[in-house]
């Protein structure tokens, strides 16, 4: 890979002052062609997960029931349950929405959209439809400056420069992730965004009316803490933050894949976004020589710790490219 990174000093122990810039296309399209030419049977893994609806429905109902159960609980108990239980459920649903953005529950796209709105309910904030718009661009234009909204803004990167600011950034990373596109690349809302909004507001209103603010607060807390200083949120950093300048996407092969739709198999996912998480592990089993030599992780908590404590790593630790280097 051709790349250039700008460091704030000659010592490589100093944080970069610019993003890494690649002068080649993202690696996944070419690797996909190579793997399919050698292992055409991988195409048999394409298509929806027939159990996706049942898995999503079970988590949605469990989380909504938990919220109603806690309607009279003290706030400290609500916070504890949200961090150690509800956060796992809501993050699971966030990654279910990620799965649905690739139409991996049903062959008919509109069914996936409705299921995404349903999966959105315990999250408390409407995001399913808007997420799909930006996420598909992240795949098609990975790292492209001004297009891929997964990459931190210059403001974030210039402000987050030390252990304290990186810790705050990690705690609030869900807000940055959600609000970044609104400021950098806003898209006009369409009909489906309004459907998502109306249904979500109706659920939130019903929760407050029938069970009170504590039940609704539990759902919001589950979303917030699960997207911050939390093991599940380690994937936000592990997926594309550059710890090795020769690699821009990283997989995670730890146990939390069981709760996150195998989003940890991230190289495999970007290589084959039409394969559902339940079958992504088979890609590595069929074509191990393409993945065994890539850097990967076994702990998302360790990734968060390394991101905060490693003085060379920060929001600038992302690979960027100009649109002119993106091949169609």
TrEMBL record:
Pfam families recorded: FA_desaturase, Lipid_DES
Organism superkingdom: Eukaryota
Keyword set, alphabetical order: Endoplasmic reticulum, Lipid metabolism, Membrane, Oxidoreductase, Transmembrane, Transmembrane helix
Catalytic activity entry: an N-acylsphinganine + 2 Fe(II)-[cytochrome b5] + O2 + 2 H(+) = an N-acylsphing-4-enine + 2 Fe(III)-[cytochrome b5] + 2 H2O
E.C. no: 1.14.19.17
Membrane disposition: Multi-pass membrane protein
Stretches that traverse the bilayer: 52-71, 78-97, 159-179, 191-212
Domain Sphingolipid delta4-desaturase N-terminal: 14-52
Signal peptide annotation: none
Broad class of the protein's primary localization: endoplasmic reticulum
Compartment(s) where it occurs, according to its Swiss-Prot or TrEMBL record: Endoplasmic reticulum membrane; Membrane
Function: Sphingolipid-delta-4-desaturase required for the biosynthesis of delta-4-unsaturated sphingolipids and derivatives.
UniProt record similarity statement: Belongs to the fatty acid desaturase type 1 family. DEGS subfamily.
Protein's UniProt name: Sphingolipid delta(4)-desaturase DES1-like
Organism: Rehmannia glutinosa
